[in-house]
UniProtKB/TrEMBL annotation, chain A:
It comes from the Bacteria. Belongs to the 3-oxoacid CoA-transferase subunit B family. Signal peptide: none annotated. Pfam families: CoA_trans. InterPro entries: CoA_trans_fam_I (IPR004165), NagB/RpiA_transferase-like (IPR037171). This is CoA-transferase subunit beta.
TrEMBL record, chain B:
InterPro entries: CoA_trans_fam_I, NagB/RpiA_transferase-like. It comes from Kutzneria chonburiensis. This is CoA transferase subunit A. PANTHER family: ACETATE COA-TRANSFERASE SUBUNIT ALPHA, KETOACID-COENZYME A TRANSFERASE. The keyword Transferase applies.
Length: 224, 280
C-alpha cells in the first residue's frame, strides 16, 4: 500500500453520511475517492462524468449539462472537492490569481464556481502537495469562502500529508490525522499558520478490499 | 422566410469599436472560432468580451482586441491556463469584471428576461464583491435575506457555433451540452450563429429538444465547416489536442508566436483550414 492509496481512502471518507447527493470531485485522487465511497460506504452518491452525464453503475443515468449543475449548486444537494492554489486557516481558498487582482503576478483559472459552491453546499479541498505556498496566512483573492466569513460549510482538507478539518470553536483549521509515516512536525513545518494539533491521530489505511477496488478503478496506476 | 446566410467577414463587419460581444461555448468547447478569427482579421478594437473563456479569449487578447473581459474563468480544459490571457493579465493589459461562473449565468438570464438584475447567493463573503466594487446586494422583501444583485449582462452582439442550422437561424446542437448559447442570443441585440453545415429545415433531424435556437433568436447564419477548430464540436469532431498544445506552446513563447500567426492566422479562414490539414 502506498501513501496515495491512503489519500484516496481519506477522500472516500469525505462523503461518509452524504446519502443521495451529487459528488463533484475535481482531480484524479478525489475522483477515485468518490468512486470508492460509492462502491463501499455511500452507494447512493450521484456522480457526473465531467461532461454532461450522470454516470451510474451501468452507464448513463441522467443528464447534467453545465447549466443544470448550477441548479444543483443553488439547490444545495452537492459536495464538491476542489483544488486550491492558496488556502488559509479558516478555509478561504484562492484559484483566481496570485498577487494584486488589478495586476496579478500570476493569473490562475479565475473564480470559477468557488464563490457559489461555498455559500451553497458542503465543500472540501484536495491539496496534492502540502506546502507553505498553499497553506498561507492570508490568501490573495478569496474565491472559495471560509468559516470566518459567514454561514459556510467547509468540511475537510485532504493533503499528501494529512487530513484537516475546522471543528474548533472559531472554525479555524485543525489537524485530524497525519498519514502513516508522517509526523505532526512535518505538517507544521509545511503549514504557514498555527494549527490545532491537540487530538491528531493517524489516518486509517484502506482495507484489503478497498485496495482491490482502488486498483480496479485505476488499473493503469495513473494515481502514482 | 428570410435567408440569413452571410460570411464570417460580414459578421465581423457588424461589430464596431467598443461593443460588448458575448461568445458562446465553454472553455475549449464549441467556440465560434471561425467568427473569432474573422474578428482578428477586422479593424475592430476596444471590445468588451463576455465569455466562459477558452482560446477565444486568448486569441482576441493576442490581437489586442479586448479592452475589458467579463468572465468566470479562462481555461483550455486539457491545458489549465491560456498563456495569452495570462500574459495580458499579468501585464495589466485589460480591464476585468471577474465573477463566479453561476453569476455570469444569472447576468445573462437577467438580460434575456429584460430584468435589471437577478438575485443570487454566489459571491457573498468572497472577493467577487471586493474586486467588483460596483456590485450591490439586495434584501429579500419577504424575509430580509441579503443576496447579490447580479446586474444584467446586456450584449450588443452574440456569437455562437452549433453543429447544424437552416438558413433562417433554426440551430441544432448534436453534442451532449447546450452550454449557454441560447442565453447569449437572448441577451444580445444582434445574434450570429456559425455552424458546421447549413441544411434544409426538414433535414434538422434528431431529437426536437436538440433544436437550441429558433429563427427569432438569430440574425445571421454562417456555414463554417470545422469552424470551432481547435475546440471541440462533438459529435462532428473532438478537440484537436495536438493543435491546442501547439497553440499553447506558441502562445507561451513570444519568439514562437509570430510564426504561429504567419502559418495559421495570416491567410484567412481558408488558409487556416489548409494549414491545419497540412499539420495533421
Amino acid at each position: 500500500m502506498s501513501r496515495i492509496d491512503v489519500c484516496v481512502a481519506a477522500c472516500a471518507d469525505l462523503f461518509l453520511g452524504a446519502g443521495e447527493i451529487l459528488a463533484s470531485p475535481m482531480g484524479l485522487i478525489p475522483q477515485l475517492g468518490a468512486k470508492l465511497a460509492r462502491l463501499t460506504s455511500e452507494p447512493d452518491l450521484l456522480m457526473s462524468d465531467g461532461e454532461a452525464y450522470l454516470l451510474g453503475e451501468h452507464g448513463i443515468e441522467g443528464w447534467l449539462p453545465y447549466r443544470k449543475v448550477f441548479d444543483v449548486v443553488a439547490h444545495g444537494r452537492r459536495h464538491v472537492v476542489m483544488g486550491a492554489n492558496q488556502l488559509d486557516r479558516f478555509g478561504n481558498q484562492n484559484i483566481s490569481c496570485i498577487g494584486d487582482h488589478d495586476k496579478p503576478t500570476r493569473q490562475l483559472l479565475g473564480f470559477r464556481g468557488a464563490p457559489g459552491n461555498t455559500v451553497n453546499h458542503r465543500t472540501s479541498y484536495w491539496v496534492p502537495k502540502h506546502s507553505k505556498r498553499v497553506f498561507v496566512p492570508r490568501v490573495d483573492v478569496v474565491s472559495g469562502v471560509g468559516h470566518d466569513r459567514g454561514f459556510h460549510n467547509v468540511h475537510r482538507v485532504v493533503t499528501d500529508l494529512c487530513v484537516l478539518d475546522f471543528a474548533t470553536p472559531d472554525g479555524s483549521m485543525r489537524l485530524v490525522s497525519t498519514h502513516p509515516g508522517v509526523t505532526v512536525e512535518e505538517v507544521l513545518d509545511n503549514t504557514g499558520f498555527p494549527l490545532d494539533v491537540g487530538e491528531a491521530g493517524t489516518t486509517r489505511e484502506p482495507t484489503p478490499q478497498e485496495l482491490e477496488l482502488i486498483d480496479k478503478l485505476d488499473p493503469d496506476h495513473a494515481r502514482h | 422566410m428570410r435567408d440569413k446566410r452571410m460570411s464570417a467577414a460580414e459578421v465581423a463587419a457588424e461589430l464596431s469599436d467598443g461593443m460588448t460581444v458575448g461568445i458562446g461555448g465553454w472553455g475549449s468547447r464549441r467556440k465560434p472560432m471561425a467568427l473569432v478569427r474573422a474578428i482578428l482579421d477586422s479593424p475592430v478594437r476596444d471590445l468588451t468580451v463576455v465569455s466562459y473563456g477558452g482560446p477565444d479569449v486568448g486569441l482576441l487578447c493576442a490581437a489586442g482586441k479586448v479592452r475589458r473581459l467579463v468572465f468566470g474563468f479562462v481555461s483550455l480544459d486539457s491545458i489549465a491556463y491560456d498563456p495569452w490571457f495570462q500574459r495580458v493579465r499579468q501585464q495589466g493589459g485589460i480591464e476585468v469584471r471577474e465573477y463566479d461562473e453561476g453569476m455570469l449565468y444569472s447576468g445573462l438570464l437577467a438580460a434575456s428576461h429584460r430584468l435589471p438584475f437577478l438575485p443570487i447567493r454566489a459571491g457573498l463573503g468572497s472577493d467577487v464583491m471586493r474586486v467588483n466594487p460596483d456590485l450591490k446586494t439586495v434584501r429579500s422583501p419577504y424575509d430580509d435575506e441579503e443576496l447579490v444583485a447580479m446586474p444584467a449582462l446586456q450584449l450588443d452582439v452574440a456569437l455562437i457555433h452549433l453543429n447544424r442550422a437552416d438558413r433562417h437561424g433554426n440551430g441544432q446542437y448534436l453534442g451532449p451540452d447546450p452550454y449557454f448559447d441560447d442565453l447569449f442570443c437572448l441577451a444580445a441585440k444582434r445574434r450570429f450563429l456559425s455552424c458546421e453545415r447549413i441544411v434544409d429545415t426538414a433535414e434538422l433531424d434528431g431529437p426536437p429538444q436538440s433544436l437550441l435556437t429558433n429563427r427569432m433568436m438569430v440574425d445571421g447564419v454562417v456555414e463554417t465547416p470545422n469552424g470551432a477548430h481547435f475546440t471541440s464540436c462533438v459529435p462532428d469532431y473532438g478537440r484537436d489536442e495536438k493543435f491546442q498544445r501547439h497553440y499553447a506552446k506558441s502562445a507561451a513563447d513570444q519568439e514562437l508566436w509570430p510564426s504561429f500567426v504567419d502559418q495559421f492566422l495570416s491567410r484567412g479562414e481558408t488558409g487556416y483550414q489548409l494549414a491545419v490539414q497540412g499539420m495533421s
